[in-house]
Write a structure and sequence with these properties.
Blueprint (H helix, E strand, L loop, with lengths): L5 E3 L17 H6 L7 H4 L8 E5 L6 H12 L4 E5 L8 E7 L2 E7 L5 E5 L14 E2 L3 E2 L6 E2 L5 E3 L20 E5 L2 E5 L7 H5 L2 H4 L9 E10 L3 H6 L7 H4 L13 E5 L2 E6 L14 H12 L14 H13 L11 H5 L1 E6 L3 E3 L6 E8 L2 E13 L13 E3 L15 H9 L1 H9 L5 E3 L6 H15 L1
Parallel strand pairs: 13-20
Antiparallel strand pairs: 1-2, 2-21, 3-12, 4-5, 4-7, 5-6, 8-9, 9-10, 11-12, 13-19, 14-15, 15-16, 17-18, 18-19
Helix pairs in contact: 3-13
This protein binds fe (ii) ion (FE2).
The site of fe (ii) ion has 5 residues, from helix 11.
Length: 459
């Protein structure tokens, strides 16, 4: 297969144009915050990514999908489940990637272990569903393993003199945990989980995701490649065309993009106008443009004299959050207003601050034209008893997001975001050109992703 990455030298910006949008930069916006701004928001990464155009076949070809299975899914650390899904010994759940299933079990020692979901006798799937049991017993012939993967029992043991107990330990995948998420890696020889996630935990120090519970978990089947879906949630460049109703109150083209090692982030400010609009909205107009989208019914809230919409929204959000997060009084206007959307390669997208969103994108079985998009809301809770996690709510291929009312008013935004995606996949099938072209700055996260994809595919 031909090289996947096309590297061009970066030409000079067109006459009269700088490398960034006109308007207030994110760092300038932070200067006006009413609270001390944490170091992590002040970080700006170096960007030495090559300008990339990537071959369209990586979104459409079976061959490229098969490469991803071998080089990405079998080799990279990936988010498999939340710890809260398996709180007690014997609790188990299943993680599915492409057509592989992984069984994740909490042992008597409370340790989380991951095994291929396959009986070592004749290969039946060991478990069909999540649940709780004191051992792992194959329903076909009742071969049984302990929760730590050691072989417990083989019916008619006399008939298997050639089966040594130690040789029939379930093969174990590596696991790692961070922020209440369980990650797995099928490759015993790659880098450690701690090295793989790098500085990501430092970025989330003020927003501990382990102190949350899964308030909603929606999985939507999508008629597009998993990367087509994922990439729609890695930039704000699409806002002007896809969400024009919020332009008065979103600094879309003034977003900041950073990339470090295996993760990247974008920051898009709210309650600041888009440089795309040709009028200067007042504070009330900015507030209204966001409220009508983010709330079910826009209440009559007026921005008081001498206050900005940004300050008002931050104050209201802090008061609401204080019920579950007492330290909310110290959170900046930025943390209360803005979108901090991180991506850990290959497919894990936790949002920063107290925005509840986590996305995950996966291929649907081995079909390069279909995928699964998941939206998880991780919310803080009152008291010490974590509420039970919401079960996965599946939405069918063409089902409207509004069928998942647990996602609240953001359903409208998800519907706008995903409207284009099957049409991208259709367009790709008719293409006569060969490459997708990314923006130099605003598609930093996509370029970073594809640079990592290339690195792993080439390894
Ligand atoms: Fe969007």
């Amino acid at each position: 297969m031909a090289s996947h990455l096309q590297i061009d030298p970066l030409p000079e910006a067109p006459a009269g144009e700088g490398p960034r949008s006109t308007g207030v930069s994110y760092q300038q916006l932070l200067d006006a915050d009413t609270r001390p701004v944490p170091e992590v928001l002040r970080l700006e990464s170096a960007r030495e990514l090559p300008v990339v155009r990537v071959p369209l076949e990586r979104y459409t070809s079976q061959e490229f999908h098969d490469l991803e299975v071998e080089k990405i899914w079998k080799r990279c650390w990936q988010f498999a489940c939340r710890e809260e899904e398996i709180p007690e010994p014997g609790d188990h759940t299943l993680y599915e990637i492409a057509e592989m299933r992984v069984l994740i079990v909490r042992g008597e020692d409370r340790k989380v272990r991951a095994f291929p979901n396959t009986c070592l006798h004749r290969g039946r799937a060991l478990k069909d569903h999540a649940g709780r049991s004191d051992s792992i017993r194959c329903p076909f012939h009742a071969w049984t393993w302990n929760l730590d993967g050691s072989l417990k029992e083989v019916p008619c043991r006399w008939d298997f003199p050639h089966v040594d107990r130690d040789d029939y330990h379930l093969p174990e995948y590596r696991t790692g945990t961070w922020g209440g998420f369980v990650f797995i890696n099928m490759d015993p020889n790659t880098e450690s989980f701690e090295s793989y996630i790098g500085d990501l935990p430092n970025h989330f120090e003020r927003w501990p995701l382990e102190k949350r519970y899964t308030e909603a978990h929606v999985a939507h089947l999508m008629r597009c490649n998993w990367k087509v879906a994922q990439e729609a949630f890695m930039e704000a460049y699409h806002v002007v065309a896809t969400h024009p109703q919020i332009l008065a109150g979103i600094g879309d083209a003034n977003s900041q993009y950073d990339a470090w090692d295996n993760f990247s982030r974008a920051i898009t400010a709210n309650m600041t106008p888009s440089p795309h609009i040709d009028f200067e909205p007042d504070e009330q107009e900015m507030l209204q443009s966001i409220l009508t989208t983010s709330l079910d019914s826009a209440p009559m809230i007026r921005v008081p004299e001498g206050m900005t919409a940004r300050q008002l929204m931050a104050q209201m959000a802090r008061m609401q959050l204080q019920a579950t997060v007492p330290s909310a009084t110290d959170l900046t206007d930025a943390e209360m207003n803005d979108s901090f959307y991180y991506t850990l390669f290959p497919n894990f997208h936790p949002w920063g601050a107290y925005n509840r969103i986590v996305y995950r994108f996966r291929p649907y079985q081995n079909d390069p034209h279909r995928s699964i998009m998941e939206v998880i809301y991780l919310s803080p809770y009152r008291g010490s008893k974590r509420p039970a996690p919401a079960p996965v709510h599946w939405l069918d291929w063409d089902e409207p997001w509004t069928n998942a009312p647990e996602l609240g008013p953001l359903c409208k935004i998800f519907a706008q975001d995903t409207f284009n995606l099957p049409k991208v996949q259709l367009g790709l099938k008719s293409a006569r050109h060969t490459h997708a072209t990314f923006a130099n700055y605003q598609e930093t996260k996509l370029r970073h992703f594809h640079a990592l994809l290339d690195k792993y595919i080439a390894a």
